[in-house]
Design brief:
This is Sulfotransferase. By secondary structure, this protein is α/β, with parallel strands linked by helices. It has 15 helices and 7 strands. The strands form 2 sheets. Strands 5-4-6-7 form a 4-stranded parallel beta sheet, with helices on both faces. The protein has a 3-stranded antiparallel beta sheet with strand order 1-2-3. A hairpin with a 2-residue loop joins strand 2 and strand 3. Helix 3 packs across helix 11. The radius of gyration is 19 Å and the shape is globular.
Length: 329
């Protein structure tokens, strides 16, 4: 398997980059990058240049179908766990979650569910999409709600969106640790980004797919307006009562568990298969390019990395940004 981080080195090598892409990127405001040297402000959110090529391609060329289910998130908010759960829920008739031949035992969750913005890594993205199972076709994205392709947002579209987020303090720390791995190993050996600098950038909204709070609020408001189309999940809730939320997730996906499946312990088997402990024990997830997507899988670890001043600043921004939304962490 190609190292997933090689995407960050591949600028200019993709075959399907839109002709106007370079021109668009060259005209955008530029900020300090986390994984790359710079990130660019596009439609109110920040992206690495290589990922931005995929964003522009998706907006111009991607066509959703009614059975599509999208997993949306800000980076490092539980995406890997949700990919494993959604793949296993949707494919449990095809793959027994207790079987030793289940794909998740030998395949990273990120290779089970493709990411919209990096479909350009394939020689023919459209052909690749057409080869995916269509009932449902599972696709992930870090795009903001307002930046999604029109075929997803269209009122007539039957596609659905599962959104996962987490406390911004933990999201910041997880993103910072992840970016350090990419900077040191895969982008011309850039020096580590100090935590204070990362916190400043995050608070200013200059982070991948950020501003974080705007990203969250976009999907939160959409979930209130169209609850049948957008399911809003919080990582902390998922950790606290995993069985309840896995069943709710399955209901939203149109793959509810039958009473017989619940009696047979299918829900618990899926939770065990997709658990942090199990996934991190697998050889496939210990390889470079996969292992970096797993850190601790805990709630509240940010207190071990952030100073009291950083925590206070993040909490004040969160309170201000979410004040009238009804959303709380």
């Amino acid at each position: 398997m190609t190292d997933r981080f090689s995407l960050l080195k591949a600028q200019g090598q993709k075959k399907n980059v839109p002709e106007n892409c370079r021109e668009i990127i060259s005209s955008l405001p530029k900020g300090q990058g986390w994984a790359a040297e710079h990130i660019y402000l596009y439609q109110g959110f920040w992206f690495d240049p290589v990922i931005l090529e995929g964003v522009i391609w998706a907006q111009q060329s991607f066509r959703a179908i009614d059975t599509d289910i999208f997993l949306a998130s800000s980076p490092k908010c539980g995406t890997t766990w949700l990919k494993a759960l959604m793949f296993t829920i949707a494919n449990r008739k095809r793959y027994d979650s207790s079987s030793q031949s289940h794909p998740l035992l030998t395949t990273s969750p990120h290779d089970c569910i493709p990411t919209l913005e990096i479909l350009l890594d394939h020689d023919d993205p459209i052909a690749y999409l057409e080869s995916l199972p269509s009932s449902p076709r599972l696709i992930s994205t870090h795009l903001s709600y307002t930046s999604l392709p029109n075929s997803i947002l269209n009122a007539d579209s039957g596609s659905r969106i599962v959104y996962i987020t987490r406390n911004p303090k933990d999201a910041l720390v997880s993103l910072w640790v992840f970016s350090k791995a990419i900077r040191s190993e895969n982008w011309n050996h850039l020096p580590p980004l100090p935590i204070q600098e990362a916190c400043d950038l995050f608070c200013e909204g200059v982070s991948f797919a950020g501003p974080f709070w705007d990203h969250v609020l976009g999907y939160w408001k959409a979930s209130l307006e169209t609850p049948n189309k957008v399911l809003f999940l919080k990582y902390e809730d998922m950790k606290m009562d995993t069985q309840c939320w896995v069943k709710r997730l399955a209901d939203f996906m149109g793959h509810s568990f039958s009473l017989e499946e619940e009696r047979q312990g299918v829900v618990q088997e899926i939770i065990k298969l997709c658990s942090f402990q199990n996934l991190t024990s697998l050889e496939v997830n210990k390889r470079a390019g996969n292992k970096e997507f797993f850190r601790r899988g805990e709630v509240g670890d940010s207190k071990n990395h952030l100073t009291p001043q950083m925590i206070k600043r993040l909490e004040e921004i969160t309170e201000q940004k979410l004040a009238t939304s009804g959303l709380k962490f």
